[in-house]
Amino acid sequence: MISGRIASAPFFSDLNEPRPQRDTLFVQPPLLPYLSLSLEHILALDAFTREDQEAIRVAMESNAQLRTAVRNWISVSEHVKQSIQTEFPSSEAIVRFALREQLNQTDWNEEELAGVQAAELSVTTAIQNFPSIERIVSRIQDDASVFDRCWNDSLDRSQDDNKLVDRGAVAGKRNGLPVMRLVRWSVSVAAVIALTMVGITQFGPQSDLDLNRIETASNELRTFTLEDGSTARLSPSSSLTWSGEFNRALNLEGSAFFDVVESPKTFTVQTESGLTTVLGTSFGMQTLPSGETVVTLVSGRVGITLPEGNLASGEILTPGMQGILSKSGISVNAVNLTEALAWSELIVFKDTPMEEVINVLSKRYEVKIELSDSLKKTPLTGTFEQNRGVQEILEIVAAALGASVEKSAGSGVYSLTR
Amino acid sequence: MSSPLTSLVERAKKGDEGALSALLTKIEPALRSFFIARIGRRIDVDDLVQNTLLRVHRGLPDLKDNARLKAFAMKGALYELQDFYRGRYTPKEALFDAHEPPDVLSNDADPEDKMDVEQALSSLSPKAREIIELREYGYKYEEIAEMVGSTEAAIKMQVKRAFEKMKDTLSTLLVWISVPLLFSR
């Protein structure tokens, strides 16, 4: 009889470690009695303890059926494993393929960059023969999300997955409609801003443990909901940081469109070239490569100052105005909001007559929209994501105006009436 | 304004050993947390964390954007995790002492054998074959269940049925193989 010594090979070293709870579900006691052991029992295990191995060995000695079954299983297993080794793309190729949309070009070194293109070809080809690779790609993308969460929890302490929910979801709850942001009438213009100057010193060097950061990739445009309910729509390659507990004092690199919830506490955004102070409003901010900061105001009031300035040396913006902060000072001009905020991929209207709203939408979406005379002079204030279809935007507008929208099946012409 | 982490990266890339050490120390808990989240609390986690830190250390000069350390570390961690999965199972070694496999397993497969195994596999449903591939790739049943949107019990049942289906084909295939019985050794 074979005694079957189990050597303490490195391969088995971890089997002596306590297993996580989920594993213990499948290793209970042993696979006794040996004689009744079947391949089904063996297949049900994710790993084998030494006791399991010994049980299988003993059972195989006296059970010819089991021997055949195990041998067959190993034949199949090794055959499949061989296919994986020879026909699956490398681990790195699959990871590159899985992350090709998520990572920036700058995240790859030269060799990897070349490999990304090769990976695309090899993985898509291999998926034709092995659909399981598609599952693996998807799993890797899940891995990346888990990594992001672990990293943020550990390093940023922002726990942003819990706090930074999609703007649309929040806005939908806020308005009771499944829309990003319903047309807001008479947006808190009455909330005249008490422009409280916030000391520049608070944006000075901070302990890295206290720094929170949200950012977007080079191909990402994402809306974050901040802890006070305000939203920041970050353009690609942009970031917002703040120190310690969220206190409505942010640093911006890149560009963002803010929709600030009113609060007695000032909301400030610091850039390299200036400081913007508000209480409740919506505005866009761009930091340009030239070092200039461009602030475009949609609603409310905003105070802008140079880094070394104070309120007296700053300017107050009113809706439809754009302030440019540079080393040479501050300039303020009136702008067309939709054009000035085109970089944010938003369509912005501020007290805009419906006649003009329809004109903008018709041109942007290249559709014909008819508007009843009673609506033509009605002013509209609202912000819409460009990637929403014209039908959806018209439905939102109609809901806000108490109007109805119809589309002609034949001509495709939209009609907004009340 | 660069974040403190970005500053550490900048200094580390310039050869500041203290910054490099601080950087690796700082990201180590995040890596550990990630690997534990994916494979549980196993001693393999130590190896995976160390290997990923090594990748970060070695690759730091290639990091083009110092503010993208997270993406850079993530890439390394995912490479390591995939390598871990692919080396996780070698059934023969898992079942038996790799240095002393029982005689029943010592018969080298004939080329014809492989062809027939492939034929047996081709008799399976696409889903069953997919599950077996994922299993042999290195995923656990629980992980496979998550990947295909099923339950662990259902996945095991699929595997069992798959082997039952292949049994006849494989029995025919293997009948000619002279297999010394273990107890006759």
Report on this structure.
The complex is a heterodimer of chains A (418) and B (185). In chain A, the strands form four sheets. Chain A has a seven-stranded mixed beta sheet with strand order 1-4-5-7-8-11-12, with no helix packed on it. Chain A has a seven-stranded antiparallel beta sheet with strand order 2-3-6-9-10-13-14, with helices on one face. In chain A, strands 16-19-18 form a three-stranded mixed beta sheet, with helices on one face. Chain A has four domains: 10-87, no CATH class; 91-154, no CATH class; 166-340, Jelly Rolls; 345-417, Phage tail protein beta-alpha-beta fold. Chain A starts with 20 loop residues before the first helix and ends with a strand. Chain A has helices spanning 21-24, 39-43, 50-62, 64-87, 91-98, 110-129, 132-156, 160-163, 167-175, 337-340, 354-365, 390-401; strands at 211-215, 222-225, 231-234, 239-243, 249-253, 255-259, 267-271, 274-278, 282-287, 293-299, 302-305, 315-317, 321-326, 329-334, 346-353, 369-371, 379-385, 404-407, 414-417. Chain A has 418 residues and is an alpha+beta fold. In chain A, helix 3 crosses helix 4 (64-87), helix 5 packs across helix 6 and helix 5 packs across helix 7 (132-156). Chain A is elongated and about 90 Å long. In chain A, 33% of the residues lie in helices and 23% in strands. By secondary structure, chain B is an all-alpha fold. Chain B folds into two domains: 4-86, Rna Polymerase Sigma Factor, Chain: A (Orthogonal Bundle), CATH 1.10.1740.10; 95-184, Arc Repressor Mutant, subunit A. In chain B, 69% of the residues lie in helices and 0% in strands. Chain B contains nine helices and no strands. Chain B has helices at 4-13, 17-39, 44-59, 69-86, 91-95, 111-122, 126-137, 141-148, 152-174. In chain B, helix 7 (126-137) packs across helix 9 and helix 8 packs across helix 9 (152-174). The longest helix of chain B has 23 residues, at 17-39. Mean pLDDT of chain B is 77; it is low at 107-115 and 174-185. Classes of the chains: A alpha+beta (418), B mainly alpha (185). The interface between A and B is large, with 95 and 89 residues.
